[in-house]
Amino acid sequence: MPDLRGLGVSPGRTAGPVLLMAAAPTLPPPGPPLSTEAGTAAVAAALSAVAAELDRRAGRAGGEARDILESQAMMAADPTLLQAAEEHVIGGMDAAHALDAAFTGHRAALIAAGGYFAERAADLDDLRNRAVAAVLGLPMPGVPDPGHPFVLVAGDLSPADTAGLSDDVLALVTEKGGPTSHTAILARGRGLPAVVACAGALTLEEGTLVSVDGATGEIRAGLDGPAAEQIRRRAEAERAELAHSRGPGRTADGHPVKLLLNIGSAGDLAPEAEGVGLFRTELLFLDRRSAPGFEEQVAAYAAVFKAVPDAIVRTLDAGTDKPLPFLELPAEPNPGLGIRGLRVDRLRPDVLDTQLAAITEAARATGAEPAVMAPMVSTPREAARFAGRARAAGVRRVGVMIEVPAAALLAEAILAEVDFLSIGTNDLGQYAFAADRQHPALADLLDPWQPALLRLVEMCAAAGRGAGKPVGVCGEAAGDPRLAPVLVGLGVTSLSMSAVCVPAVREALAGHTLEECRAGAQAALQRDHTDGVV
Fold it and tell me: In whole angstroms, what is the distance from residue 165 CA to residue 332 CA?
């Protein structure tokens, strides 16, 4: 079996036997429909079982995994989905085919909407498979549980599959997916080596011993047992050594680089890092019919500020690209380019007003001095307007996210209005290359090693040096130990990531002097492909 190569999205190396994802249920030929009463009861029970199972998994999960599973459970419990399935039953379909037709209709609508809606189509595929299996009395499809360590290989993984992985899973390999897919994000959060967009992965035979390198994307097949065991033991020893790594981030010659956390709530805090570089407040707002009230927001923010008084808070990053029902925003033909992030303020200024008031009240109550930044800022005027609103509310340190090329090109002018910049490499790459973050055929364009993306980062860092103001990276690229020295060499002053990534990034920086980081950055800028160079 020839070796395979995909896109490494979660660093680490391990080895073990291949196991394939359990297949989705196959629809039987259409059968005679049950009575309308029995058929509607069957589809309702199936959807209810799926939602309950996802809620159960969410209760055992934490952080991003919990939020994603809760969101999927909400989708399964959507009354419009049940209504569509019931209408197909009334039209003469059996329960299994009625569910399939309902999910197919919803999927087509999401694909047509584009942007974030299209990204959720894969979630619907997973829900459809689970609901059909439930109504047919079959085991729900998903991750195998052989009782021994293995490398999981799949066409793609749903959020529910990734969030519910057992400790026996050594690594993930998928034929689809990209660097910012749910699989990549959750794999990094768990510290699992992962390779996506790996053509031919499903041709691997079950039981074949393979090694997986989540940094380079290389899959080596044909190992024998002793070789696989040696790779696994070496990886475990390296992880154990890194787990004891503590202290501030710095290069080999002492240049300081703050290593911060990306969190969604106080439950994601960990001692490995030096603070919080991205507090995603939108997780408090997800899948709600009404916005969280002032007091509820104060409590959520205060829980973080008590532990990290100088946390960097991102105001609500939502809109038609990340729909929240209570916003009641109009449908758009291209949601990814529409009303999202700070742009929501154009239609619903009350949302930002309440959030800023809650943040400042939480800061007052805890004695903290958090920084606040806005997402999806495109112009200096937007930056100035947000800074004025935030400072009027009592925020002392104000920043903005750099997620679109227009903002990177005008970073110097934007820094004249705010105190710091935070670069979101996920969206910046998507907009720079006009490439959907979830499109499996375009995964190479979303690779953060792309020189064009690194040049945009360099422009922002240069503007920060000129203004004497910090510029950090809080996209998924920050947690890549190979790329971290390059980002520092470009001039970035802080890196914000999942807690599990901090030890490896700290170790990587400690292995390079600042001059070596700068040399590696210049080499990366000159290359015409995305191989790591440091």
Answer: 36
Q: Which helix (H) or strand (E) holds 101?
A: helix 95-113
CB burial of residue 254 (10 Å; 0-12, 13-18, 19+)? exposed
pLDDT, tens digit only, all 534 positions of the chain? 678 998 888 888 999 999 998 778 888 898 887 788 998 999 999 999 999 988 887 887 766 667 777 878 888 898 989 999 999 999 999 999 999 999 998 888 766 655 555 556 667 888 999 999 999 988 777 788 788 999 999 988 876 677 668 889 999 999 988 776 767 777 877 788 999 989 899 999 999 999 999 988 999 998 999 999 999 988 888 777 766 667 899 999 999 999 999 998 888 888 878 999 999 998 888 767 788 999 999 999 999 999 999 999 999 998 755 667 788 888 787 777 888 899 999 999 999 999 999 999 999 999 999 999 999 999 999 999 999 999 999 999 999 999 999 999 999 999 999 999 999 998 999 999 998 776 767 878 888 999 999 999 999 999 999 999 999 999 778 988 999 999 999 999 999 998 888 988 999 999 999 999 999 999 999 986 545 444
- Residue 516: strand, helix, or coil: helix
Letter for the amino acid at 391? R
Pairing outcome for strands 4-5 and 13-20? unpaired
| Residues that are catalytic | 182, 474
What is the token pair recorded at 261?
């956390």
Cβ atoms 260, 494 nearer than 8 A: yes
397-402 and 420-423 beta bridge pairing: parallel
Beta-sheet pairing, 420-423 with 471-473 = parallel
Strand partners, 4: 219
Coil, helix or strand at residue 140: coil
Task: Give helix 95-113 / helix 121-136 axis angle, nearest 10°.
Answer: 180
Give me the long-range contacts of 262-265 (CB less than 8 A, separation at least 24). 262/474, 262/496, 262/497, 262/498, 263/63, 263/304, 264/63, 264/64, 264/67, 265/63, 265/300, 265/303, 265/304
What does the alpha-carbon distance between residue 512 and residue 400 come to, in Å, rounded to a whole number?
A: 30
- pTM, to two decimals: 0.72
Q: Compute the distance between CA of residue 58 and CA of residue 480 in angstroms, rounded to an integer.
A: 27
- Stretch (H or E) spanning 17: strand 13-20
